[in-house]
Amino acid sequence: MKHQLEEMGITKGLSLEESCFQYLNLRKRLVDSVPREIHISKEFVCPAELQEGLELVIDKIKNGENLIPHS
To answer: How far is CA 8 from CA 4, 18, 44, 47, 54, in A?
Structure first.
């Protein structure tokens, strides 16, 4: 379990007990990593300095990649 959390980048500096709590909390909230279609509102505006990050996250969502590193 701790190894899985380390792979997700979550357990840095956490005790085994804290890691257990993180794992159990995440298991309930994890969404399957499957490709998804993106719909962006016409009213949505992204500041220019955040555009590159937004495009990275959109590509990961479209490809069904893990988004935990962006949380």
So the answer is: 6, 15, 30, 28, 20
The 10s digit of each residue's pLDDT in 14-71 is 787 887 777 777 666 667 778 999 999 999 999 999 999 999 999 999 999 887 777 6
Q: Which of 10, 56, 44 is nearest to 29 (CA)?
A: 10
Residues 6 or more apart whose Cβ sits within 8 Å of residue 62: 35, 36, 37, 38
